Amino acid sequence: MSSILWELALIALFAGLLAAAIWDLQRREVPDGCWQAMGIVGAGLGAAALYSPSAPLGTVLWILVAGLATEHFFDWEALLRHRSARITLGIELSAFTVCVVAVGVAAIALGVSAHGVPYPVVAALAVVVIARVLYEAGALWGGADARALMAISLLVPLTPATVIAVPAAAVAFAEIVPFALNALVNGLLLVAITVPTTIAAINLVRREFSLRDGFVSYTIPVGELARRHVWLWEPGDRGRGSEASSMTAEEDLRARRDSAQELAARGIERVRVTPQIPLVTFLAAGALLTWVAGNLVANLFALR
């Protein structure tokens, strides 16, 4: 990728992630338009970077993979809602199958190289498949998290050289792993460090800390339940339910208001809650960390 295209991709990446992080912090929901803009820009820049008159296959495969990713950013299923859900499922499975088979066959026949299947194509496809599998398995907290990974993979599919010096072994590992997955690892590391310690600090200051719940939940007045981005922990379900992750921001707000009214009517003054983690925000921070210092987990292991 030329320096100009690379700079444009970085600007689009971090501008898009900054906007997404702000929406995520404010509403725990990111408008589809953010992912659509990032996806379209990423698809165009990637096609321009891979274009070669002597090896057009790479560009064709990139457009195919980019199309698979960007279809997740548009609510095209709305056009088929009056029909069976099996139709939309069949269309998506067919799209995944076509992309995976096309890239796989080309990679086997021509190899993964600039004259065969470019590595950015393989990296982006891997991220799209992994993000969708993680979402369907419930390992991601919402659809925006999966879309964020896909959008990142289109703008910056490969992990670039770090801003600061890191161990050579860590550099080798990070360069093999797609940029979006390194960003996910760094983001989850930030979640694992900051969220439990912040909750524990809140409980210690209030003298409400216990080993049972002290790292995962804290108490708030019932009247604040509707104003906070939290899941009800006690009384009620401990953490979010299986259906909560698919709620829209409006549905989540309505559910918290209903719970607050019901609990207040029962005379309950304080409830124990756990925060709704803004994973897109942590992914944005993870992407920045990856650009600056690579995969932090790989760095730690390389220092041993």
Question: How would you describe the overall organization of this protein?
Answer:
The chain is mainly alpha-helical and 304 residues long. It has 2 domains: 3-158; 160-304, no CATH class. It is 62% helix and 5% strand. It contains 11 helices and 3 strands, in the order ααααααααββαβαα. The chain has helices spanning 3-27, 32-50, 57-70, 85-110, 119-136, 143-155, 168-176, 179-205, 249-265, 279-293, 296-302, and strands spanning 218-221, 230-234, 270-275. A 3-stranded antiparallel sheet has the order 1-3-2. Helix 2 runs parallel beside helix 6 and helix 5 runs antiparallel to helix 6 (143-155). The longest helix is centred in the middle third of the chain and has 27 residues, at 179-205. The radius of gyration is 22 Å and the shape is globular. The mean pLDDT is 91.
> What overall form do the CA principal axes indicate?
globular
Distance between the termini: 34 Å
Whole-angstrom Rg: 22 Å
* Count of discrete structural domains: 2
- Proportion of residues in β-strands: under 5%
Count the strands? 3
For the largest beta-sheet, the strand count, sense and barrel status come to: 3 strands, antiparallel
Please specify the SSE layout and strand pairing.
Elements: H1 3-27, H2 32-50, H3 57-70, H4 85-110, H5 119-136, H6 143-155, H7 168-176, H8 179-205, E1 218-221, E2 230-234, H9 249-265, E3 270-275, H10 279-293, H11 296-302
Antiparallel strand pairs: 1-3, 2-3
